Amino acid sequence: MHTFQSIATQAGCSKRTVQTWWEKAKADHGELGTLAGEGQPRIFTDQEVALLVAYRSVRAAFPKEKRPKTTAKKAQKVDVTVEMGNHCQALTMPEINGTTFSLEHFRADDVTALTFENPDTIADEFLAVADVLIQGMDADIKTREERLQKTRTAKGRVAAKAQELKLEKRLYQHRARDLDTAQTTETQTLQDAIAGLHNLAQPQAPQNDNAA
Asked: Within a 10 A sphere around the Cβ of 130, how many other Cβ atoms?
């Protein structure tokens, strides 16, 4: 496993120098090295290290005192013309503007969506009907509760009076029987007295049918 720092240590240069080699090699060969993770150092294989070291500059390969001297030569001026040429075949511009596309061709054939044209209207009508039904049920329950309460109140009043009536009926039966018995006794006594009075009266003489 090699990193920028380990390569720099082996090559006897700075880490920044190795990074410069890496930038040049990446421009020529593409991405080099892999990142193990975020915040982790870049890892290089042995082959990649050899490729990086190959980009060691002339300044590093030759010390200043041994660096070969080069003499710059003035380029000779020539009068030439460079033409681009045209090795292309122009095609007719396709007609795209005004083209109609159907998304039906993009959708799956085994599924068909079922939908309502105006779901909001259906929802509003459903809610309106539901509200009317709820109001009707609430009103019916209220009426039934009021009727039940009145029935309970009436039952309480009638039950008390019914108990009183039952007691009064029993008392009436006893009292009426006693009064009837007494009335009969008194009437019989009076009748006996009248009969006794009649017995005390003189018997009437029989009438003669031949009397003038």
From this structure: 10
CA 32 to CA 22: how far, in whole Å? Answer: 7
User: Which residue spans within the chain are E strands per DSSP?
Assistant: 34-35, 42-43
Buried b or exposed e, range 38-48, using 16+ CB within 10 angstroms: eeeeeebeeeb
Output the pTM of the full model.
0.36
Nearest partner of 51 among 83, 28, 79, judged by Cα: 28
Q: Which amino acid is at 132?
A: V
| pLDDT tens column, 29-51 | 888 888 777 777 888 888 888 88
For residues 99 and 75, give the distance between their C-alpha atoms in angstroms, rounded to a whole number.
58
12, 27, 42, 195, 207 from 32: Cα distances, Å: 21, 10, 9, 157, 175
Cα–Cα distance for residue pair 29/31, rounded to 1 Å: 7
Domain regions of the chain by residue span: 4-63
Taking residue 124's Cβ as centre, other Cβ atoms within 10 Å add up to 11
